[in-house]
Amino acid sequence: MDFGVTAADEVFRTHVREFVRAHVPPDMAARTRHDVHATKEDLQRWNRILYEQGWAAPHWPMEYGGTGWTPLQIHIFEEECAAADAPFMSYFGLRLIGPLIYTFGSAEHKNAHLEDILRGDVFWCQGFSEPSSGSDLASVRTTAVRDGDTYVINGQKLWTTEAHYADKMFCLARTDPDIKPQKGGLTIFFIDMKQPGVTVRPVITIDEGHSVNEVFLDNVRVPASDVLGEEGQGWAQAKFLLGNERVTNAHVPRAKRDLVLLKRMVSRAIGRGVTPTTEARLSERIARLEIDLAVLEWSVLRELSTSGRTRSQISASGLKILGSELQQRMSDLAIDVVGPQGLIFFEPHHDPSAVLPGGADDELPGLAARQLFFRATTIYAGTNEIQHEIIAREVF
Amino acid sequence: MEFSLTFEQAALKDAVARFVADSHSFEVARSLAASSGFSSDHWNNFADFGWLALRVSENRGGLAASPIEAALIMEEFGRGLVAAPYVSTAVLAARLLDGAGGAQAAVDRLIAGEAVFSVAPLEGTVPAGEVLRARDAGNGYVLSGRVPLCLDGGVATDFILPARLDDTQGWCLFHVPASTAGLGRRTYRSIDQRSIADLQLDSVRIGPEGLLAGSTDASKRLGEAFDEARLALAAEALGLMEAAIDVTAAYLGQRRQFGRPLSSYQVLTHRVADMLVRKDHARSMLYRGLAHLCEIPSVREAAVSAAMVAIIERGEFICSQAIQLHGGIGMTEEHVVGHYYKRLRAIGRTWGDLNWHMDRFMARTGARAQVQPTHEEMVA
Questions:
Q1: Residue B59 burial (10 A CB sphere; 0-12, 13-18, 19+)
Q2: Whole-angstrom Cα distance, residue A253 to residue A88?
């Protein structure tokens, strides 16, 4: 064991910091600080800036456009992006389907899709969850029936994040009702979102924001060549994704940035004058968040030190559990700090130059929405209860 | 950044684990606790294995190993409930004697297993108003006052004590053999059956060689040594937590109620999942603390206290839930889980408790965001 950070990594940090700080447009940085959900325009603009630098997907293998950085260097890069208030890059292309395609896809698929994803020209969404299939992914009911050179897909997807931004969906469907889903009954298809039979309906979450959707698939015809890998590989491919998410789910870079902003808020609130008991409570909550964020960060660093496989299911699920709880606790504290202003509802797309009601600061609308939306963090990417069950099944 | 053990580290960990497996069963731990607290045979073994010399420099006869190696030993000691005064002697005293230019005779005795030390901290457990005072008598020093709560004080052959010299603001550090005339001790025990002493010094005379550190660096060196010692205890806590979870998971697999094994009840298995995650996270904080031991004092202190808060709280959860999941049997002195719990509670009150660590962390990183210079930095 040797816990030192090498001089080379320090130099690397300075290098990426200089680039990122010089290239995040200030208006974009302000939106990242203040809004819950990034706009498609910002996601594309930032993706393009990084693409031109060759940094759009550092975690990809170099032959497909990755940077060849170590896992720790990628983490440092993401920290610097978050610290500069760059938007969190769209997840579904760069993190999910990109790796699926270069791992399972044919040469044709790699040529057809990877460069578009890297450039941010084509946006993807993930068609996994359904009304009756949440954590229990094997229970998807969407069907794909072979008809000559095409498949006909019918079903309904739910909680489809960024479906309203997306050009394409990777969709998990039952191809053989007689084979168990885990044993070859599931397949992943590429679906063009603009083709007939695809209907996207917004699902408004409790923050009154729009990031997730329902997607109806009604006799959608997909060429057989748009199967990822081969028919029946869907379960193995879905499991591959879960393994990839283990570190990103912890959201350490973003949480570190949020803590800096939160500490500033708390300092300001204390500076404006609060009772000594309130000051003590706020200070202790900040301190506990800072300690638990350090716990999370060093758990991520340990995870990064093992290339490929997770250290253990305890580690992977533990990152998800603590990371999601931390996001909630930080967003809760941000609202508790402002006191009664925390009950104000702000229109999602208010005029940034307008004077806010109730004497609220500019940052409050985004924080208020985030506090509500972040109830989702312990639900998505495998509920925290499922994470407990996964760990328990490793032991018993 | 490398988290896996080197070959040498793995060999050390294996050797300590073998000692615990062969020579330190729970029955042995209990019978030792009931008598003197630890075995002088074991202590001689530690000397033979070189474990007492880990944190002493090579030019003084030691092995010049790092705090990581000491942590590896303590983790296994935690698993085996080894109550030997290892941290007091082989970490605290070793570091403080090593840093003092002289004191080679004491270093030699320490390495040879001929001495057991108890070291008093400057802060963390000292009640306000208790001050040991030293007077420069020309050919040595005269010490008077009380020093409460000296851990391992009942079994110590030697004490290392901070004292205020000639009523100045400066703290100095003295080596006081337990047999010195005028040194009285009242010995009692902790909840985990270790020995503690309250010392009463009435004009205790010691020679000039007894001064280990003057006022320019005594508090700095004490601060460094105790932060390292706190992390050694944190490593011990990690070993305890792991052992407590192992014995609990095994019990849930064996014990049947209502015709089913307890391990078929989700409310119980999910509790174990919580325990496992907290243990894994506690380990991350131990590593983070160790990584910051050589930083400037304010950074080091914040990191060590963050580690202690995270580890003490998680350990408390794990060990209390280990009792809970055992039910009534976990409440008995005959069962091992209660002993893990008591040792963990004792660690959480040794050389700083949760409140002290929280205060120190907040003073260094607080919401007002001004990093306060430490006492040591102001002196420097």
A1: exposed
A2: 10
d(CA B303, CA B371): 13
Confirm or reject CATH 2.40.110.10 for domain A124-232, answering yes or no: yes
Candidates B4, B256, B277, B288, partner chain A, best to mutate (most A CBs within 10 A)? B277
CB contact B270 to A (< 8 Å): yes
Range(s) within chain A of domains with CATH label 1.20.140.10: 249-395
Spatial neighbors of A353 by CB under 8 A, at least 6 apart, are none
Number of domains in chain B: 3
Coil, strand, or helix at residue B174? strand
Q: What is the pTM of this model?
A: 0.94
Does B256 contact A at CB distance below 8 Å? Answer: no
Contact B233, B350 (CB under 8 A): yes
Domain boundary among B213, B246, B281: B213
Distances (CA, A) of B40 to B62, B70, B76: 21, 20, 19
CB spacing of B285 vs A298 below 8 angstroms: yes
CATH code at A249-395: 1.20.140.10
B91 domain residue, yes or no: yes
Let me know: does B196 contact B140? Beta carbons within 8 Å: no
Q: Which residues contact B154 (CB under 8 A, 6 or more apart)?
A: B37, B185, B187, B188, B189, B195, B196, B197
SS3 A381: coil
A341-355 tens-digit pLDDT: 999 998 877 677 788
Q: How far apart are alpha carbons B174 and B140 in whole angstroms?
A: 11
CA distance A268 to chain B (A): 9
SS3 B148: strand
Q: Are residues B375 and B228 in the same domain?
A: yes
Q: What percent of chain B has pLDDT over 90?
A: 87
- The pLDDT tens digits of the residues spanning A6-60 come to 899 999 999 999 999 999 999 999 889 888 888 999 999 999 999 999 999 999 9
Residues in chain A closer than 8 A to B284 (CB atoms): 295, 298-299, 301-302
Q: Dump pLDDT digits (tens) for A289-321.
A: 999 999 999 999 999 888 666 778 899 999 999
pLDDT digits (tens, 9 = 90+) for A261-293: 999 999 988 888 899 999 999 999 999 999 999
Question: Residue B2 domain-assigned?
Answer: no
ipTM of the complex: 0.93
Q: Rounded to an integer, what distance in angstroms lies between the CA atom of residue B92 and that of residue B70?
A: 11
Distances (CA, A) of B31 to B84, B151, B306: 13, 20, 35
Residues B193, B329, single domain; the answer is no
Q: How far apart are CA B188 and CA A193, in angstroms?
A: 76
**DSSP-derived pairing of the beta strands A168-174 and A198-204:** unpaired
pLDDT of residue A135: 81
Residue A40, CB-side half-sphere exposure with 13 Å CA sphere: 15
Give the domain CATH number at B77: 1.10.540.10
Q: Which CATH number does the domain housing residue B173 bear?
A: 2.40.110.10
Residue in B260, B317, B309, B259 with CA at minimum distance from that of residue B286: B309
Q: Which residues of A touch B290 (CB under 8 A)?
A: 3
Residue of A nearest to B6 (CA): A1
Could you tell me the residue range of the domain that residue B264 belongs to? 218-379
User: Which residue's structure tokens are 């910051």?
Assistant: B292
User: Helices (DSSP H) in chain A: which residue ranges?
Assistant: 7-23, 26-34, 40-53, 71-83, 91, 98-104, 107-109, 115-119, 234-248, 252-272, 276-304, 313-337, 364-373, 384-395
Q: How far apart are the two ends of chain B, measured CA to CA in Å?
A: 31
Residues 13-72 of A with CB under 8 A from B: 72
